[in-house]
Specification:
2 copies of one chain form a homodimer.
Chain A: E1 5-10, H1 19-31, E2 35-41, H2 43-50, E3 60-64, H3 75-81, H4 86-95, E4 101-104, H5 108-119, E5 133-135, E6 140-144, H6 154-172, E7 178-182, H7 193-204, E8 209-214, E9 226-228, H8 231-256, H9 260-281, E10 288-290, E11 296-299, H10 306-321, H11 324-335
Parallel strand pairs in A: 1-2, 1-4, 2-3, 4-11, 6-9, 7-8, 7-9
Antiparallel strand pairs in A: 5-6, 10-11
Helix pairs in contact in A: 1-10, 3-5, 4-5, 6-7, 6-11
C-alpha cells in the first residue's frame, strides 16, 4: 500500500463548480503531503481555475471529460448513458484502482447509484448507506442510513450499525461509540416491524456498543453517536434538521425585530449568535460518506464551498489511513 | 342532536392532574355555554379542586373512579385490566353515547389503544390516526399519522389524507387545504414501497387537494396544510420538532453568553424573543385529535396546563358543531 492517498474529485458537480471545487482541491494539498488529486471535468475550465493558484503540479492531475450529470436527471439513466461524465469517470478511477476515493458535490441520486453500480460494494455488504454527521448539543452523531436504500431489511441495518461504529471510532475518534436505533419509544417492544426485527440483532451483536432505542426527540441532544435507521426515516430526519434550523432562525430574527429595545439588542448579539450557529451547523469532515463500497465515496452538498471540498478530501485521507474498509471487511467476515 | 356538547375529561391524566385539568375544565365553561363537562377521576381529589372555583354546577358532573393508568404501564394490559381507571371510564362514556368526546393528558399509549378498542372506529375506517398540529413559518400544519399505527398500508394513508383534510378545513378553517405526502424527493417515482403505492391513490382522489410529495425540509416552511405519513415517520418528525427546538434555543442562549456585548444584547432581546418563540410553538387547539373514531379523542401532552385542557375542550366543540364525523362517514361511503 502506497503512502499516497489519491482522491478523484468531480470538478463539475454542484452549484459552485468548477471554481470552488478546484479551489478546495488546491487547498487540500497544503493540509497534508500525502494527498494527491485527480480533477475530473472539462479540462479547459478546470485548467483556467487551476491557473489562479500556485500549487505542486505533481500532485494534481486533470482528467478531461465531456459530459456533466445535471441535478434533475433521473440518476439510473444518467449513470448508464453519460459514460464520459465527470462523476462516472471519477468513480471508474476508484473501480480501476487508480484512485482511493471520490468526492462529488453533484446530483445526490447519481452519486448513490454510481457508488453502488460503478464503485461497487465490498463483498458481503448488502447495501451501502449514506452516513452524514449531524450536529448535536454534545458534538455530532452519524446518521446511517440517511437516504441511500429505500425499504431496508433488518440485515442491512445490522451492517449499517457495524460500519457506522467503525467510522465513528476511527475517522471521528469517538472511542466505543454508542449505537442506537431510531424508534417511537424507549421500550424494547415498541416500533414498526423493521425495528422489532433489527433490535434483537443489534442487542446480540458483540462488535458494537448498542444502547437501545432512541426517540427522535433525543437525537439533537447527542444521546447516541451512531443513529441507525432506514433511509426513508433518516432522510426525513436529515432534511427536517435543515428545514427546522432555517425556520427557527427566521423566527428568532422576527422576534428580534418586534420592538426598538429588541432591535438594539439584535445589533449587539448578531456577531456572537452568527458564530455560534455557524459552528453548530458545520463539521470538520465535509460531506457524507457512502460506506461499504470498494473505496470511499463522499457526497458533499450541492452548494459546497472550497472549505467543504477540502474537508471532504481530508476525510478520504483519514478513511484510508485508518484502513476503514479493511476493518469493515474483517467484521463482515466474522458474520459468515 | 342536542345543542349541548358533553366532554368527558380524564381528571387524573398527566403531570399536573388533577389541579390543572380541573382548572382547565372550569375555564372552558366560560368560553362557550354549550360546553358540559364530565370530570372523571377520584371524586375527593376532584371535588377538592373544584371547591376552589365558582362555576355553574349544572354543567360539571364528577364521576368517581378508583384507578389511574400510569405513564410507564404497558398500554394494552392497562386498558384491559384497569376497568375503573379514569381514562377507561371516560372513554366508555363516549362509547355509550353519554359524552361526545374525551380529553386526556394521560399515557399516550393507553389513549391510542383505548381510542381504538373502547371508543371504536367509524365503520369503514381502517385505522384511527393521531393528528397533531405542528408549527410552521406560515401557521400550522396537520401531521397525520404522528404515532398511532405502526406499519401502515396505502389504504390507511389514503383515509388519513381525507380525514385530515376534513379536519383542517372545518376545525382549523383552512379552505381547500393542501395535502402532501412525506417523501425523500419531489419526483413522483421517488419513495419507499408504501409511498409509491399511496401516491397514485392520493393523486386520483377527488375529495382532497393533493399537491404531491413534500420533503421534510419543506414541512416547517408550511408548504402543505395536511402532511400525510406513516406513524413511524410522523413520530420521528413530531419528536424531532420538539428536540431540535430545545437544542436550538439552548445554542442561541449559549451564543448570547459568549461576550459582554452579546450579554447586554441578550437582556434587551429576551422578552421579545421569548414571546415570539412561545407563540410559534403553541396553537389554539390544544391537544392532538385521534380521528376516525365514534366520537373524538383528544390527547394533550403530559405536562398540559389548564390552558391546554381548555383549548382541547374547545376543539371538541368545534369538532361536534362542524359535524366532522358525519363528514368523514360521507367520504367513506363514497369509497364503497
Amino acid at each position: 500500500m502506497s503512502e499516497k492517498v489519491i482522491v478523484a474529485v468531480d470538478a463539475m458537480g454542484g452549484d459552485n463548480a468548477p471554481q470552488e471545487i478546484v479551489k478546495g482541491a488546491v487547498e487540500s494539498l497544503q493540509k497534508n503531503s500525502k494527498i494527491y488529486i485527480k480533477l475530473v471535468g472539462k479540462e479547459a475550465s478546470v485548467q483556467a481555475e487551476l491557473a489562479k493558484y500556485d500549487y505542486d503540479r505533481e500532485r494534481i492531475e486533470v482528467i478531461n471529460t465531456s459530459e456533466i450529470i445535471e441535478t434533475g436527471e433521473p440518476p439510473v439513466e444518467a449513470i448508464r448513458k453519460k459514460k464520459d461524465s465527470s462523476l462516472v469517470v471519477a468513480m471508474r478511477l476508484v473501480k480501476e484502482g487508480k484512485a482511493d476515493a471520490v468526492v462529488s458535490a453533484g446530483s445526490s441520486g447519481a452519486i448513490l447509484v454510481g457508488g453502488q453500480t460503478i464503485v461497487g460494494r465490498i463483498k458481503g455488504i448488502e447495501r451501502a448507506p449514506l452516513a452524514p454527521l449531524i450536529p448535536t448539543a454534545k458534538g455530532q452523531s452519524l446518521l446511517i442510513d440517511a437516504g441511500a436504500n429505500m425499504d431496508a431489511k433488518a440485515s442491512y441495518l445490522f451492517q449499517f450499525a457495524k460500519m457506522g461504529s467503525i467510522y465513528m471510532e476511527n475517522v471521528v475518534g469517538i472511542k466505543n461509540p454508542k449505537v442506537a436505533i431510531v424508534n417511537v419509544g424507549a421500550e424494547e417492544e415498541k416500533g414498526n416491524a423493521l425495528v422489532k426485527e433489527t433490535y434483537p440483532l443489534l442487542k446480540a451483536c458483540k462488535d458494537i456498543h448498542f444502547i437501545g432505542s432512541i426517540e427522535a426527540r433525543d437525537i439533537p441532544k447527542g444521546d447516541a453517536d451512531v443513529i441507525v435507521c432506514d433511509a426513508f426515516v433518516g432522510n426525513a430526519i436529515l432534511k427536517l434538521y435543515e428545514g427546522l434550523g432555517e425556520v427557527f432562525l427566521a423566527k428568532v430574527k422576527e422576534g428580534l425585530m418586534t420592538s426598538l429595545r429588541s432591535k438594539i439588542g439584535a445589533l449587539l448579539i448578531k456577531p456572537a449568535l452568527k458564530q455560534t450557529m455557524k459552528s453548530f451547523m458545520s463539521n470538520e469532515y465535509g460531506g457524507a460518506p457512502l460506506l461499504g463500497l470498494n473505496g470511499l465515496v463522499v457526497k458533499t452538498h450541492g452548494n459546497s464551498k472550497s472549505g467543504d471540498i477540502c474537508k471532504s478530501i481530508g476525510q478520504c485521507l483519514a478513511f484510508r489511513e485508518q484502513k476503514i474498509n479493511d476493518k469493515i471487511k474483517e467484521k463482515i467476515k466474522n458474520e459468515a
